[in-house]
Structure formats: structure tokens, C-alpha cells
Input
Amino acid sequence: MEQEKNVVQLLKSTPSTVAVSVNGWVRSFRSNRFIALNDGSTIKNIQCVVDFENFKETLLKKITVGAAIKVTGLLVESQGSGQQVEIQVSKIEILGEANPEEVKLTILQPKRHTLEKLREQAHLRIRTNTMSAVMRTRSKLAFAVHQYFQENGFYYMNTPIITGSDAEGAGEMFHVTSLDLKNPPLDENGEIDYKQDFFGKETNLTVSGQLEGETYAMGLGKIYTFGPTFRAENSNTSRHLAEFWMIEPEMAFYNLAQNMDLAEDFIKYVVNYALENCEDDLEFLENRLLQEEKAKPQNERSEMSLREKLSFITENNFKRVSYTEAIEILKNSKPNKKKKFKYLIEDWGADLQSEHERFLVEKHFKCPVILFDYPASIKAFYMRLNDDGKTVRAMDVLFPGIGEIVGGSQREERYDVLKEKIAAMGIDEKELWWYLDLRKFGTCVHSGFGLGFERLVQFVTGMTNIRDVIPYPRFPGHAEF
Ligand code: 4AD
Ligand code: MG
Output
């Protein structure tokens, strides 16, 4: 019996007299002799050499781009350049045909397709080199996230997807209901009567697991979540999705400085993990990026290659800068004075836009930046108020090319102050009774942050658009597949 192997195993094997078999999809079939077969286990293909004289014409005709086949033969030293080993084919089974005329109409057709085109056929795009490299890297990164927290004393916690609270207080929620929207029950005021809805109240998809995460940190000490979050914000940008995955660690007894230390250490760990474990894919993605950048004017091209950028992150300290310092830098910056920013920075208190964040990171400091102590007025209700009464212990980690990759804070642990902040922001206290309870029973200093997983994947893979780092992107007007 032959040994069944996948491509990545075969490419690491040495020639042997024991026959092997491999399943995969045909990437190309040259000169009726050379099949390039890919099975998703690696960016590389295995070359399968067919002596066409020994096979039926009808069979050979079915070895077409996109077809699923099983190849059996001997692994031998390759005669050609470009690979160490190849399969000398003795048997071919067609598992699933692919009609060449129809393949021509899809992105399986081997030629350069735009990323926009690939998105339209998102069910097939995983067969392309770019998407498979991105998705293998995404999977490795997810593993690294768990590994980091598990090795550092954190417990993995699953927060609810359906919730009655708006964790960020920004009102960007998708409603969840089982009411008949064409004929909803009404209350005495003529408004929809949610008491008759499935949960007996208004509910929505979670925008963040933080609040529930805090409750568990107050018993388990250190927890992290890693799950989908949903935001109905109408942002059609290359960095926003309506459905994205967030990692949210929450730690009892951590102050803001410890929170920043953790965020920096965590990011460096996962980026380094990708560097060490995704070599072939990163090499491919690095070249892809190089090609993409060739289309840009010289001054917009990156000075560093993809892997140099990743190493730069792991080897350098993130610069920690207060919001107040950042505003001074921005106010006096060239683009502000020359009115090049879309949103000019005039006064303390201004919310920072991505153009400002990127200026600080890419032009001014030229390294990742952690901004902290933001004005209370532009941040969420749960952040710890500083003694100055106007700033909160918030922190955002800003990355080159991405802008904000992490948002976090030390949490307001004082019952009275939190109650006041909830009221001041016009939030219904009754909705948060359980959250306030935490401040009554053994409250303590605690902190946490959220990292947008897709933004991390974007950074590591060098993909420009966030829609190309999640299998099926959800954004305004798009929920196909
Ligand atoms: O800054 P945000 O809104 O913070 C929170 O949700 C906190 N509850 C986190 C916490 O302290 N536990 O979001 C956190 C991160 C952002 O920095 C960004 O990386 C990502 O989530 N993010 C998005 N990613 C993709 N699409 C969107 N629409 C995103 N909104 C936020
Ligand atoms: Mg934020």
C-alpha cells in the first residue's frame, strides 16, 4: 500500500522506493506532462510528472485547472529546477472534474486577478496563492493568541453574542429580534412592545465582550475572550468591518501601565510567532506587496519589506505618549499648519482621526505608539477618571499602515464615580445593575484591552484592505455568502 501524504509533508520528504499518494487541486498542467498540484497545506505545489504515453487520452483530458485529483507514484529527485522532489506518477484518479470553459469565467483561471474580483468570488478565492497564504497565517496567529494567554495564566472565556447592553455606549448595534417586523406588537404608546419579544426585552449583537469579561476577571483574575463582535457603523473604509473578531484580555489588579506592558508584550509575541512559523507564506506575501507597491509613486513606497516591518515591531519599544503631548505635536505639525489634514487639530479635546494617528506613527515617531490619558469626553463611560477630572486612563496602540490596532483602559472601579459617569452619558443605569454590582463587592483596580484580530492579520500579511483578511467580509451593503 502506498503512503498517503499531503504536499507539505512530501516536499520535506526524501526520495523513497515506497509509493506515495496525494490529493489536491490542479493548478496547471503543462505539455501534457507536468501537473502542479496544490492541497492547501502549503503555498508550494508538488510537481507530478506524467508519462502521457501510459495514460488514456480521456483521462488526461480531465486533468484541468481546478479539478480535484488523487495522484499515486514514487517520490523522486526532481530533474528540473525549482523543486527538490517530484512525483513520478503511476496512477491518477479524477475525484472532481472542472469544466475548462466554465473555469475560464472564474478566478480559478490562472492569471492575475484584482483583489476586488477575488472578493466577488469569495467562495473560490481560497484556491489562490494570496488568499491561502493570508488564511494560513490567520490560523497560525489565532493559535499564537491562545498560546500566549494560556502560557501566561489567563483563562479563555466566552462572552455572550446576544446581549441587552451596549458596551461601548456608541449605539452602533444590530438588533436581535424574533418579532414579525411587518406586524410587531405595540404597547400603549404605539411603540414596539419588546416585552413580547423572544427575550422579553430589547437585545442586540454584542459590540464587545468587555463588560461580561470584567465580571469574570473579578473571580478568575485574568481572562481573555476571542470571539466575533458586531458593529453597525457605516464606515466604508479599508480598516472597518461590520463583523470582526476581537481579543479582549481583562486583568484584576492591573493598572494602566501594566495594561500597556501586556499589550506590547502580547503583540510582539504573536508577530514573532508568525515570523517563525509562517515563513513560506510571509515570503510570498512580501513579494506580493513589493509588486503592489511598484504601482505607487516612489515616495509612497515602504522603505522596509514586509518581514523587516514585522521584525521592527518585535525588536523596538513602543513609544508611550500622552494625548496632551500628541495634540501639541499635531497642532505644530506641517500637515496641520499647511491645512493638509482633512480634520485640522485646533484645540485640546479633539478626537483623533486615522490621518492623525498615522502621522504620529509613520512620520513623527516612526515606530508603534501607545497614546494614553485621553479626554474623558471622547472615550467610553467605563474608563477610570484621572485626578485632573478631565482625562481618563485610556490607551490606544497605533500601528504603521493600520492606525489603531488596540483600544483599552484601566476601568473605573469606584462605585459613585461610575454611577455618575453612567448618568452623565445618558445611559440607563438599570441596564447596568450587574456591572455596578462589581463595584460593590470587592472592587479593585483592573484593566483590559481589545485587539481587532483582522487589523493584526492585516498588519502581519501586509494586506491593504481588511476585507481580504477575513473569509467572508461583512460591510455596508455586503452580506453575500
Ligand atoms: O477601541 P474599541 O472600540 O474598544 C473596545 O471595544 C473595548 N471594549 C476593548 C476593551 O477594552 N476590552 O475596539 C477595540 C479594537 C480596535 O482597536 C480595533 O483594532 C478593533 O477593535 N475594531 C475594529 N476592527 C474592525 N472593524 C471594526 N469596525 C472595528 N472596530 C474596532
Ligand atoms: Mg477604540
User: Anything to note?
Assistant: Residues 394 and 409 are 4 Å apart (CA to CA). The domain at 129-172+207-468 is CATH 3.30.930.10 (BirA Bifunctional Protein; domain 2). Residues 129-151 form the longest helix (23 residues). The chain has a mean pLDDT of 96.
